[in-house]
Amino acid sequence: MRGIVWLILLFTAAAVAALTLGRNDGLVSLFWSGWRVDLSLNLFLLLMVGACLLVFALLHTLSLLFGLPERARAWRLAQRDRGAQQLLREALVSLWGARFSRAQRVVQRLLTLNAKTPELQADAGALALAHLLAAEAAHRLQDRTRRQEQWDTALRLCASQGQARAHEEAARLMAVGWALDDRDAPRALDLLAELPAGAARRTQALRLRLQAARMAERPLEALRTARLLAKHQGFSAGVAQSLMRSLAFDVLASARDVDQLRGLWLQLDASDRRDPFVVARAAETMAAQGAAADARAWIRPLWDQLAQLSEEERGVLADALALCTSGIGADWLARLEEAVARFPRNVQLPLALGHTLAELQLWGKARQVLGTAAEEQRLSANQRRRAWLRMAELAEQFEDSEQRLHCLEKAARAT
């Protein structure tokens, strides 16, 4: 089809030329040393066009001839650049394939090729990437000295070229991962602190910060980082809640006295202080420090919203309250009796009520309630054991040694 089109165009051009130049009777006379040459105007024009084309072809040929060295140099550079790219891909494949020694050898060949080619050395980003690959391979081979040398070289290359900022951030994040692998949490945190603000807020940087904070036993910092990760959707909702709850437990467990525990409680996020599980753990920890009144004060806001909590959350709060009955007032007795009547299927509430009755020296009713709770198989062994031990204390108050021994035996057998 294309040939037919060209043929039609040729016929058209011939027809136009015949119509335009067919009646041109002009002559061109050329005089040279007594000679005269007469040419038709049409022939003269064709010769001029041919001469121009010939001159153009000659000039183009000369340009190509004189440009051969530059083209040869560009071809050699392209070949070396193609070879460097091939070596870079080979190094990546070897590294991902766990062939770390081979990856180091390939990177060394790549660096040697770059050293022989000044044009390739101008690309600081590619050189930095090669050194980072060598550093990663050295890390996998546990060669820390070589790893540090390659990493330092990569950083110097990044600093020499402003466009290599992304490579520098990548190098620092890689170094953080290495520090965590080496169990060097302080160095990991120092490297994270050197990151620019934008890079430090990335999900991967936050994940590394979380690992470093947990490794350094900084639960409060880890909790704040986990909360940022949850906002960035770094975890699923269920995993985020479980993780933050666990970290809040670690924060509370790090307290050494009542004052420190109060301070840590105030540093927790408001959402943590509304979590029944965190509140229960905080109350238990505070009660163990001998400040049961403060523990009950933390429980009280959630206790007033028992109806809005799940059955498990009500049970956790009731169990925590059972450990915080030292010095409890009669106002809590009314709240507990109301809760027991309102949620009859909850087995932890009667246990808390029994401990409260015992603390208020309502021993007769306490023995009845605790006796029922101690036989409740839905309670954990530890909860039933505490009920039997409290009943043993009540039996001692009544100077009933036989009942006391019976309760202690039951407590020992509780499983």
Automatic annotation (TrEMBL):
Its main location: membrane. The keyword Transmembrane helix applies. It is a multi-pass membrane protein. Coiled coil: none annotated. Pfam families: HemY_N. The chain crosses the membrane at residues 42-68. Signal peptide: none annotated. GO terms for biological process: heme metabolic process. It comes from the Bacteria. Residues 26-140 form the HemY N-terminal domain. InterPro entries: Heme_biosyn_assoc_TPR_pro, HemY_N. It is found in: Cell membrane; Membrane. GO terms for cellular component: plasma membrane. The keyword Membrane applies. Keywords: Cell membrane, Membrane, Transmembrane, Transmembrane helix. This is Heme biosynthesis protein HemY. It comes from Inhella proteolytica.
